[in-house]
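<derive_structure_tokens>
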Amino acid sequence: MSSNVFSNKASLTLQPNQPQIYRGERVTVTCQIQGGGTQWTHEWRSSAGNKPPTSREYRIFRSTESDSGEYSCRGTSGFDFTEWSDVVTLTVCKLIIFIYSTHQNIDFRLLVVSSTPEKHVF
């Protein structure tokens, strides 16, 4: 049997619509197949090492740094499939709050640490 590549385009969206979230937050990655007519099963790729389901939504209820990575998807139907979506990169950051107290002032400092060293924010 031969397989066919459909011109339907798969696309990914994040909810919340931001590529950087904090540990413990909920995030939903949705795979949308443009064009109609076919009942698609969703195939996912993830560099995070997790195995998303074959449904169109992948929900992370309590994100951790291990959920950080690149995600993409495509639709499959028997031997037919769409092109892979563009990659969406998700970064889960650790939020650390330091409280410094001097004689009369309290100073709050916020440190956001991402799972990738080049993205640390101070």
About this structure: Residues 115-122 have pLDDT under 50 and may be disordered. The CA atoms of residues 83 and 97 lie 43 Å apart. Residues 5-91 form a domain with the Immunoglobulin-like fold (CATH 2.60.40.10).
